[in-house]
Amino acid sequence: MAASPAIALHYRPTEVDVPLAGPFGTRAASGETLAFSRFRSYEETVAPEWHQEALAKIVSFIKRSRNWDGYGSLPLRHDTGMFALQVLMAVMQPRTPMPSIVPSPSGVQFEWHEKGVDLELHVTGPYEWEIWFEDHTGQCASVSEELSSNFASAREAVSILTKR
Q1: Please, are residues 2 and 22 in contact by the beta-carbon 8 Å criterion?
Q2: Do 30 and 67 sit in the same domain of this protein?
């Protein structure tokens, strides 16, 4: 039985040698062992490089105290933060640059300002977010719209940024 992703993300094998058997399909020959160091963890093989940094920032926004900005703003809601992470995971591609991740009084914002593109995704709640996209080369039309569960325009904008 395979471990669930939530468990696997927190599992960190040690350098202890273990017999090759079980989920690998075949039993090890007598005395044959493989060190865990020869395997990448689940997190390294599945989660992109930016994932841990993005998660850490979002969690830090959730843990902020009330009035974190001096204007009475509340910390980021947990459900909003987790949806924001889902948005990022849905739109990022392997070569997409890491966005700036900044808190706002009403949510969290992902920003890219590079390669002739200004792109901002502002998440204010689960299925409540907006995109603002400007292509300074003039090759693509500007986009400014509220989104819910349709990620198409955000994926397209990130794709344009990534391909440059």
Answers
A1: no
A2: no
